[in-house]
Amino acid sequence: MGSGEAAKFQRAWRDEDHVMASNQPVPNAVATPAAVMPAPTALKDSPAVERALNRSKLYLLISWSLLYPEDEEFLDYLRSGEFVEDSRAALDMLKTMLDGQGGERAAQKLDALKKQVDLAEALVASECSNWQLSDLQSEHRRVFSNVITLDCPPYETLFGNDHVFAQSHVMGDIAGFYKAFGVELSKDIHERLDHLSVEFEFMHFLAYKESFSRCHDGADKTQIVVDAQKKFVKNHIGRWVPLFCRMLAKKADSGLFKLVADMTAEWMEFEAAYLGVAPQPYTETDYRPATFNAPEGQTYECGAQDQGNELSLLLNEVGAQSFMDGKEKGKDKEEKGPVGTA
Fold first, then answer.
1. In-domain check, residue 68
2. How far is the C-alpha of 148 from the C-alpha of 133, rounded, in Å?
3. Mean pLDDT split into 10-residue runs, the chain, 342 residues
4. Cα(139)–Cα(257) distance, rounded to whole angstroms?
5. In a domain, 305, yes or no
6. Which domain does 199 fall in, by range?
7. Which residues of 121-145 are buried (b: 16+ CB within 10 A; e: fewer)?
8. Which positions ≥6 away from 195 have C-beta within 8 Å?
9. Which terminus of the chain, N or C, has less C-beta within 10 A?
10. What is the pLDDT of residues 176-191, one digit of tens each?
11. Residue 162: inside a domain, yes or no?
């Protein structure tokens, strides 16, 4: 990555003593994924290691582009040309090291992604280079709103789950993946576990972990990480992200987030081909924001009873009745995060 990266990639995860925290500056932070794990010392399978490293980089770049810009770090990264430079370098290395992985489909998608990066370069030169932070923030709010927008919500559990109980099940499965690899959401990140940026950063983490494992661990441990990536793409991001990208492209219509939508869509197709998985993507008819009606013959009590929590925001957004009328203070306090198994 470029020379101006210091502290840019402090992001969303904590992994034991290794930190991928928020996108806020951290003293002495190292910008690259090497801040998370020691750099590989012996490339046992150089092409496979390079593929994993550059997939990791691209996941992180897309992840960062989707978060609300609370400071000028991403804007500086964009205006300086480093976003385009790093994206292009990662794609070029992937193409060089592809070695037939994913077949012709994967190679075609890399070519399509390079064209998207060319468009991003033109956009930066013509428009983004003159942006102030307020311009980027306004563009983000225009597309994503200040609340959960139903035009293109970047949350997995709003897709294919037409009941709040189904959403809880999916959220638990996502949390189970995170827990299985010892990572948790940083307190500095103000997003849910199922936000696209968070899920993509988890894939960034797994791909980097794969590169590390190929250098330092045996085949069995490496396969565990590879299988986790396949499952997460097949059962999670590969299902809802393609539809989200179509919705995002329609809502954005033009500009930065239209390019991000198109680039993300191409990336998901590359990943499915590269990993050899066949997700069953949702269609427009599968987009059904959850209702809050208890199953017939059952009652429902919920411990998430503080005004303003994510569940109540979601229910209010889809027009459900006001949450928490008649709540009992001190009972069934909301836990710190969902628990699930991978």
1. yes
2. 22
3. 37 40 33 40 73 97 94 94 97 95 96 97 93 95 82 88 69 93 84 93 97 92 96 96 96 95 98 97 77 47 35 34 35 38 34
4. 8
5. no
6. 45-286
7. bebbeeebeebeeeebeebbeebbe
8. 66, 154, 155
9. C
10. 999 999 998 887 777 8
11. yes
Tokens of 110: 């890399």
Q: Which helix (H) or strand (E) holds 13?
A: strand 13-15
How far apart are the C-alpha atoms of 11 and 205, rounded to whole Å? 11
- Round to whole Å and give the CA distance between 203 and 57: 10
The answer to the question of residue 249 being in a domain is yes
Model pTM above 0.90: no
Structure tokens, 211 = 């590169």
Structure tokens at 192: 């849910």
Residue 275: CB partners within 8 Å, gap ≥ 6? 102, 229, 230, 233, 234
Query: What is the count of structural domains for the chain?
Result: 1
Q: Which tens digits make up the pLDDT trace of 82-101?
A: 999 999 999 999 999 999 99
Enter the tokens of residue 105: 């489909």
| Residue 269 belongs to domain with CATH number | 1.10.3480.10
